[in-house]
Amino acid sequence: MTHDLVSRTQRNLDRIGFASLPKAIASSGEPGIRRFVEFFVVTIRNKNTRLAYAHAIRQFFAWTEARGVRSLDAIEPVVIAAYVEGHCGSPPTVKQHLAAIRMLFDWLVTGHVVQHNPATSVRGPKHVVRRGKTPVLTADEARQLLDSIDTSTVIGLRDRALIGVMIYTFARVSATVNMKVEDFYAEGKRWWLRLHEKGGKQHQVPAHHNADQYLDEYLTAAGIVAAKKSPLFRTIDRQGRMTEATLTRNGAFRMVKRRAAAAGLSRSITCHSFRATGITAYLENGGTLEKAQTIAAHESPRTTKLYDRSRDDVTIDEIERIII
């Protein structure tokens, strides 16, 4: 490889957490190396997916190298099946790793690096989910959390607004923290929220009157109403002053943990809990699954159902129907 290609390759590997090329890829020559790097930096646009797939591929090649498999031609279906069979992760994790391996080899096949995809015939573990595991707040608990936040400071107003947006729009934390000021906008007599979802999709949702109020009070206190292109949710420095930096997902996660603990709620609550909390409250109050799916921007109603905990409770009256 030329010096420039080596430098570009290493920079891209650093981006996805590879200290060096897997030996099987390095031995495939320049076309294989180029194709391997392109798989991550060209075909996968979502940063989180890219990192997850890179982790899966890194783990797979480390496993094969430890067993003396150091060329792409030596990776046969039985090798991948053995990796899947011996994987210590949960079924969803194993399925994700297999999907990453299958996609990588598809990319190598279309690039004429290998002749066939050895992962095509390998089946992953069966995994059927009918009920989500995300911790959910009741409507009263959600109200308790929102009311517990001290809104005499801009950080309190920001945190209440952020949590409110996630609850009232069923939004993912990534879509929420990546909003710009201009993504809270007026159209006619209503205010709307524009969310930037996975896959580059934009999703517009009418602003609930509570979310409308929370955002209006936060924006006014922060003094960023006119900064349309700037981040909506920003970090706060140690002096309590708002910066121009975007609040990260991890920053939002830590904030939610602190706020939940201060409100006396379960420490298991996460940012994703608000998605499930909003969907459950909506369905409990007569909302339809189809509309919930639309608000949440889910591709399938089956996904939306996983967030619905309105039918979780089994009453003692139902148990007493077991007459023996």
TrEMBL record:
- Core-binding (CB) domain location is 31-109
Which keywords, in A-to-Z order, does the entry hold? Cell cycle, Cell division, Chromosome partition, Cytoplasm, DNA integration, DNA recombination, DNA-binding
Stored Pfam families: Phage_int_SAM_1, Phage_integrase
A GO BP term, please? DNA recombination
Please name the GO terms that the record assigns under molecular function.
DNA binding
Q: List, for all copies, the residue spans of the domain called Tyr recombinase.
A: 132-321
- Write down the InterPro entries for this protein, in alphabetical order: CB, DNA_brk_join_enz, Integrase-like_cat_sf, Integrase_catalytic, Integrase_recombinase_N, Integrase_SAM-like_N, Tyrosine_recombinase_XerCD
* Keyword Cell division carried by entry: yes
Query: Chief subcellular site?
Result: cytoplasm
The UniProt entry, under SUPFAM superfamilies, shows: DNA breaking-rejoining enzymes (SSF56349)
Q: Where in the cell is it found?
A: Cytoplasm
Q: Can you list the GO cellular component terms from the UniProt entry?
A: cytoplasm
Q: Cite the PANTHER family for this sequence.
A: PHAGE INTEGRASE-RELATED, TYROSINE RECOMBINASE XERC
User: This protein is called what?
Assistant: Tyrosine recombinase XerC
